[in-house]
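Weekly sync, protein design subgroup
Attendees: M.S., D.O., the rotation student, P.L. (late)

Item 1: inverse folding check
M.S. brought a backbone from last month's batch and wanted to see whether the design step gives back something sensible before we order anything. D.O. pointed out we never logged the input encoding, so this time it goes straight into the notes. Structure tokens as presented (157 positions):
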């Protein structure tokens, strides 16, 4: 049962991340994107009985997310690329906002302790020993967790 729950959580987290990417690509604002995803989840949960094929959940959720984003843009008076309208080709390098959103999503997928260690190490510039002292953990544990977290992040990219 525990493994099934863990797999379900992984699937939901992946779906959430995909929905966030769709929302961000439409509204181009991190805060609005998170609002769009929240509203989309509410719609998905309230209309889950209308989903005919469970295998199409991801596509269905992304479509709902895009439609909610379109409505948010319309409400805010922003022009946006609609779900079925062709998008302008984007430049080959992502914007800073897109990179920050991606980093935030990746860090959010880590367990809280590993996320804290990664932030201490790479954002705040703490040495491994300082992290070990701050978190009251052995130095070897900190080094191993940082290494495993980096490998996990590399795999996800």
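Designed sequence read out in the meeting:
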């Amino acid at each position: 049962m525990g493994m099934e729950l863990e797999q379900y959580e992984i699937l939901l987290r992946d779906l959430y991340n995909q929905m966030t990417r769709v929302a961000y690509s439409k509204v181009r604002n991190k805060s609005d994107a998170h609002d769009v995803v929240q509203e989309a989840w509410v719609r998905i949960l309230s209309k889950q009985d209308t989903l005919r094929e469970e295998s199409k959940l991801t596509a269905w959720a992304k479509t709902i997310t895009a439609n909610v984003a379109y409505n948010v843009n319309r409400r805010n008076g922003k022009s946006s690329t609609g779900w079925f309208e062709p998008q302008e080709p984007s430049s080959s390098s992502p914007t800073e906002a897109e990179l920050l959103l991606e980093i935030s999503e990746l860090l959010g997928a880590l367990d809280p302790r590993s996320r804290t260690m990664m932030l201490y190490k790479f954002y705040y510039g703490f040495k491994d020993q300082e992290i070990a002292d701050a978190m009251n953990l052995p130095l070897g544990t900190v080094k191993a967790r940082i290494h495993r977290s980096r490998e996990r992040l590399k795999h996800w990219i």
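Discussion: The two ends are 29 Å apart (CA to CA). Residues 80-91 have pLDDT under 50 and may be disordered.
Action: P.L. to compare against the previous round before Friday.
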